[in-house]
Amino acid sequence: MNPLPKTPFTFFINPQYQATQAYDPKRQALLSATALAQAQAVITSWAGYRVTPLHTLPELAAAAGLAAIHYKDEGSRFGLGSFKALGGAYAVARLLCRVLGQRLGRSISPAELLDDAALRNACTDITVTCATDGNHGRSVAWGAQMMGCRCVIYIHATVSDGRKQAIERYGAQVLRTAGNYDDSVQQADHEARAKGWFVISDTSYPGYMDIPRDVMQGYQLMVHEAVSALAQWPTHVFVQAGVGGFAAAVCAYFWERSAAQRPVIVVVEPERADCLLQSARAGAVVAVKGELDTLMAGLACGEVSLLAWEVLATGANVFCTITDQAAVDAMRRLASPVGGDPAIVAGESAVAGLAAALLLAQDPGASAAVGLGPGSRVLLFGSEGDTDPALYQQLVGRSAAQVLHDGVAR
Questions:
Q1: CATH number at residue 267
Q2: Which residues constitute the domain of residue 92?
Q3: Rounded to an integer, what distance in angstroms lies between the CA atom of residue 314 and that of residue 187?
């Protein structure tokens, strides 16, 4: 039995990958174990923090001819439905501490910000903003609500009403713009400059680096949780990418801890939004223009984050693209597992890594090129659950509740 129906895919072996390059001080200034410890201390203190599940999928691994598949399921993260809860909200906390610290002439900690009513009241005239396809904006809005500041979120033309409403539930004003995600990023930046707001973006660009660095550092907590639950390091990590911040956080975590023994990092994008693969081919950052029309809304990005590229340009082994149909097939495969594997609710942007791993595993040429075979232990990050419940039900044929009920009843 094939683990996934065959659909077209592209993979590109990164010629700039440096197998022996040390994780140097320049990269440590971007992502480091010290900064992760700071993020961990803050995030784990928030109400509702729980380590998300790491599912083992032995039946799927056997069908794919692999030793093991581990799937980190971020669908329950802080009730927001995705790993983005770790990044945007943490960056909001860091930003507010810096702004209030400058005003008051003293250091402010995130814990103090939550516990001190006067400090929270001082946040009410501060506005944070960002562009989003859904999940990042929800995290920023949640963080703003938790810490008492105002929030304005920009979404682009194709973001669903369900995602818009999910952000609004956290008290944010949500404004829809024309164009694609990158156009909404520019709009948010323009409005923030004009009105004195603060942009909390997960993508970096010239002159804007500190906040995306905080976002990425929050993401590393998810990697740390996963690795802490494993008996052995994975041999391969397949990680989906939009602007690349998530993928860079994953890559950097392993690289910093062992440059020589790090797993093969495969970065996966939608075929219609492949700015990282195109940049790898060009040997420099390349923007992908157009509508970026993909079902994987969370990955519909045409411009690479410059901070992410600092890590991925020489730290990622392989870049890969998949079709929308492959993502839907992977969602359905997780929802209706064979044998004793658990049923998993995974949104359309959660499964690109899984889809690529299964497609490459059943292609002899591709699997040989990336060293994927019977001894491979694959780690995947299921970055979201059913963050758009109506779309999830449409694509899978059942609601998330039905999938989980059926899984328990098997």
A1: 3.40.50.1100
A2: 88-201
A3: 31
